[in-house]
Every structure is written in structure tokens, then in C-alpha cells.
Amino acid sequence: APAHPLWPEIERVTLEQLQYARLGVEGGVWQLFAEDGEMKMYKREEEVDGLAVDPLKAVHTVKGVTGREMTHYFFSPDVRFEWETTLEQMKVLETIADDTLVILQIHKRVWPASQRDALFWSHVRRVPNDTDRDAQDIWIACNHSTEHHEAPSNEGKMVRVSLTVCLVCQTSIEPPSDGGPVTRDHLTCKITYCSVVNPGGWVPTSALRAVYKREYPKFLKRFTQYVKDRCDKQPILF
Ligand SMILES: CCCCCc1ccc(-c2ccc(S(=O)(=O)CCO)cc2)cc1[C@H]1C[C@H]1c1ccccn1
To answer: Given its phi and psi angles, is residue 102 left (phi above 0), alpha (psi -120 to 50 degrees) or beta?
Structure first.
């Protein structure tokens, strides 16, 4: 494994997030708050120091793409402005490896709150599927807040959110019955998106929950459609 001080944390958090995502929405603690076709979005209402920090878990099924393609476009900074509508600025502060970056994002101000930024490492990896032989490998992308010497400390201008996010994808292939080649019509990608965002500074709970309720379904719908459009008519990346 690459010798970088963040590497042990990246390894630990990524695998923890993988287990957390694979728990699904069992246990009756998750409250369904948005549904759109195959997409189901759940939340838990939690407060930390009086701040709403509602963990979110979304499950979705997308036809015609693989988990590698889905996590690749989620990870890639080059295309982020194509699908992330709340982004104002983004800077890759460090390239730790071709699958591991440190990114600073400035998000558009969401009235009535003050503007926020997010500083996090971003990692994508294939997790060999050791249980089910004929299943495809799992792909995970994980973003987790971190410190970085190159990130401005903002001196009160901007509030820094802290976040842990993962996108876990499992591809399945229904091979054509006529023994023909596998095309995108035979692909199904099951997605679990998890996020915990601490807004970092006071936001009225009702306002914050309204923002989450509006922004998260829009974000996941737009992102998954973006990937479908990008992959359409392209060779399949397994
Ligand atoms: C008053 C609002 C305070 C918190 C604002 C804020 C900041 C960052 C984020 C966020 C940062 C990263 C990610 S990601 O999944 O890693 C993708 C890469 O961008 C996702 C969401 C969320 C929110 C919360 C609005 C909420 C919101 C939800 C989905 C989209 C936009 N805004």
C-alpha cells in the first residue's frame, strides 16, 4: 500500500463505510423521506450539539451501467461540475494516487445559512466479491473530511462542513438467453449512497432539513442520469 500518512485512515474508513452501506436500511431506524421510481431515500434524525446531522442512506437501481462506471464518474473531479449543481469552486489539493485525492470544494450559499466549504480525501476502489463467485465485484467511492496544510483556514468567512460519504455499487449481468454478447441492456447496477454531513455551524434545524429534503433526491437523480448518458453507446467498463 502507498506510504502516505492518510493511508491507514483511508483504508479503515473506506472498509467501515462498505460494511455500513451493506447493512442496507434494516432495523426500522431509517425513515423513508423521498421516493422516485427505483430510488428510495432514507434518513435518521439526529442532532449533534443542537445541530441537525441527519444520516442519509439512499438505495437505487440503475440499468445499463456498471459499478465501476458509476464510481468512476462520482470520483472524477474533471466531470464534477457537470452533475454537482451546488458546487461553486473545487480544487484538487493533492493527488495521493490515481484513485486517491484530497479535494477542497466551495458550495453555493444556501439561504439563510452562510456559505460552506468541504475539505476531504476521496478514494475509489474495487472490492473483490469473495462470497458469490458468479457475482461481479463491488465498487466503492468514499469521501471523508480531512485536514490539509494547503486549505485556507477561512478566518470566519466560510463555515467548513465535515462529511463522510460513500457510493457502493454492485453490478449484475443477466446474460442474453440466445448466448449473444452482453450489452448494456443486460446490466443492472444496485447503488447504496450514504452520507453524514455536519453543517459545521449553526443552521436552523427546520431550514437544514428542508435543504436536505430538496437537495439530496435532486443530486442522486441528476448524478445517476448523468452517468447513464455518459455511458450510453460507449464500451462497457467492468
Ligand atoms: C445549509 C446547508 C449546510 C450544508 C451544505 C452542504 C454542503 C456540502 C454537501 C455535500 C458535499 C459533498 C457531497 S458528495 O456526495 O461527496 C459529492 C461531491 O460533491 C454531497 C453533499 C451537502 C450539503 C447539504 C446541503 C445539502 C446538500 C445535499 C446534496 C447536495 C448538495 N447539498
So the answer is: beta
- CA 167, CA 14: separation in Å to the nearest integer? 10
82 lines ligand 1 (CB under 6 A): no
SS3 156: coil
The predicted-structure confidence for 99-120, as pLDDT tens digits, reads as follows 999 999 999 998 889 999 999 9
CB distance 77 to ligand 1 below 6 Å: no
Cβ neighbours for 93, distance < 8 A, ≥ 6 positions apart = 102, 103, 104, 119, 148, 150, 151
Which of 211, 213, 224 maximizes ligand 1 atoms within 8 Å of its Cβ, making it the mutation to test the pocket?
Answer: 211
Residues sharing a CB contact under 8 Å with residue 90, sequence separation 6 or more, in sequence order: 77, 80, 81, 103, 104, 105, 106
The answer, yes or no, to whether any atom of ligand 1 lies below 6 A from the CB of 43, is no
Q: What is the pLDDT of residues 146-177, one digit of tens each?
A: 999 998 766 667 899 999 999 999 999 999 99
- pLDDT score of 1 more than 90: no
Specify the pairing of strand 138-145 against strand 159-173. Answer: antiparallel
The Å distance, Cα 165 to ligand 1 centre, comes to 10
